[in-house]
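User: Can you recover a sequence for this backbone? Please restate the input before giving your answer.

Assistant: Of course. Working from this structure:
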């Protein structure tokens, strides 16, 4: 995609935004900027959790107050609705998952970083695979191997012949392929598209107003900057929403494995 103004060409940002070489020549292929940012974010989250809960007081203040707000939000809006009496047991996983995904997403709007870690498909895939390994393990542990696949493939009330021919293959495909794939891609695709759009409007505004200013191009440049600012706010909402939805779906899958009758 290119926009021609006068004798110059504006080239829109593309997939090169997501192509990060190793940090130095000879470094392992996986040692890239997103990996370093992801590890840094994980350590930062540990530091924030330590600051919030290392020395709790009866009346929370500062970091403890913020930490408890996030904890109560995940407990009341995610864990308890799907896990019931098992909610507290799974809160460490769900809280950590939500906070880490949210922090990695917010890196896309932090000046100087401006790259959402989850726009690299490898990171959402790891989260999704971890959730599904836990789901299948719990399902087999609580229902038994035979019971798990029987409940999965032959729900009560459905004729056995119909279940065997139609329902069972589709349910197996959904459980082991489609569901984990969509769980990961939903997070990845939103972060990928949002980052690309923000980069486009920001680059267009910079190019039209600073690098190649013209009378005709100035209004378009100003509009591009305004759209970039508005989209930054919208993107932050989506970053929060995707972290919430990913965590909620994880809780739902765990709850379904623990309580298949529901």
């Amino acid at each position: 995609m290119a926009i021609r103004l006068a004798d110059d060409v504006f080239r829109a940002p593309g997939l090169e935004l997501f192509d990060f070489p190793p940090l130095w020549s000879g470094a392992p292929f996986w040692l890239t900027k997103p990996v370093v940012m992801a590890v840094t974010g994980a350590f930062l989250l540990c530091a924030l959790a330590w600051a919030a809960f290392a020395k709790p007081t009866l009346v929370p203040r500062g970091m403890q107050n913020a930490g408890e707000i996030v904890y109560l939000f995940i407990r009341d809006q995610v864990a308890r609705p799907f896990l019931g009496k098992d909610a507290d047991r799974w809160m460490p996983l769900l809280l950590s998952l939500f906070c880490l995904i949210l922090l990695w997403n917010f890196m896309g709007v932090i000046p100087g970083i401006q790259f959402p870690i989850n726009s690299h498909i490898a990171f959402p895939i790891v989260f999704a695979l971890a959730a599904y390994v836990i789901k299948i393990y719990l399902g087999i542990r609580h229902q038994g191997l035979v019971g798990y696949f029987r409940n999965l493939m032959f729900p009560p009330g459905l004729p056995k012949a119909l279940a065997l021919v139609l329902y069972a293959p589709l349910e197996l495909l959904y459980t082991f392929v489609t569901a984990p794939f969509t769980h990961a891609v939903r997070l990845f695709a939103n972060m990928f598209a949002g980052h690309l759009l923000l980069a486009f409007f920001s680059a267009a505004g910079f190019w039209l107003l600073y690098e190649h200013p013209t009378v005709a191009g100035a209004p378009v440049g100003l509009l591009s900057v305004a759209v970039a600012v508005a989209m930054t706010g919208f993107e932050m909402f989506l970053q929060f929403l995707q972290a919430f939805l990913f965590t909620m779906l994880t809780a739902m899958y765990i709850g379904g494995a623990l309580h298949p009758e529901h």
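That completes the design. DSSP finds seven helices and two strands in the chain.
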